[in-house]
Amino acid sequence: MKKSKIFILCILLGITIGGLSNFLLNKRQAPTDKHTVYIGVHSTKSNSASEEKYLFKQALGYNPNLISIEITWEAFFPKSWTRNSIKNKSIPIIRWSPLDNRSVEQFSFTTITEGLWDDYLKEWANEAKNFEYTLFINFAPGINSREYGWSILYDPNVAQPYKEAFQYIVKLFKKEGAYNVLWIYESEVAHTINTNWIHPNLAYPGQEYVDWIAIRGENFGDSKIWSTWKNAEHLFGDSIDQIDLMAPETPIMLTGLKTVENEKENAYTWYMNIPIFLESSLK
Predict the structure, then answer these.
(1) Quick one: angle between helices 274-281 and 232-246, nearest 10?
(2) Span 156-177, pLDDT tens digits
(3) Helix (H) or strand (E) holding 166
(4) 196-216, pLDDT tens digit by residue?
(5) What letter would DSSP give residue 67?
(6) Degrees (nearest 5) of the Cα angle 245, 247, 252?
(7) Exposure class string for 97-128: b at 16+ Cβ within 10 A, else e
């Protein structure tokens, strides 16, 4: 693992751990310190950014540096939520899921490059630009994950349309002047020795279009026939090495961290060891 080139940011879904550094947000500013770990929390639909921050701080004594939310395709830009995030000194991350609200069927990425969503995308781009502060957008997260219907695991032919749609959206946002948006490409960790089918480069849109690369990961322990207990280093190490070769200058974030627990291991210890892994990766 080429640790000197890794700048890791951590977003935890479902459970949170303490941050290692708090910072005050300025307009168009993003985390840039390569020797700092930023910790965040995922916001559920039932809780506001303020409520999530309160729960985070009550449990661990820290304010979250970042806060994310899931937004479904065709939904309006979350103006109130993003403003509230900044008010609470957390950088917003939008997980923009390409599911049509009228259907749960797999979304067609080609409809984006064909221009059928241009009006919708321009509306989002201008709302993002008017927001002025830095925000992350994670478009079609988990492109190689079993969790999402648009994944290349279900149809390998989706990779090229996805890349083209990603590039199209980024170019449109920049054309509309939304340079404060940082774009995330998210990939699933490999759980088996033969990882060609899930390699992060299969759907990578390219360094010109990706500002951050996210890695999703779950420790299944011995709950699956093919799985064993893995700490954060064992779970993410190989994927970080792959990404370091693919895009050595691109910063990395960890998203969707989850773990099971058993009689020998507990979830609390697993999560609390993550900052140690992150700190050692930055040395």
Answers:
(1) 30
(2) 888 999 999 999 999 999 999 9
(3) helix 159-175
(4) 556 778 899 999 999 999 888
(5) E
(6) 105
(7) bbbeeeeeebbbbeebbeeebeeebeebbebb
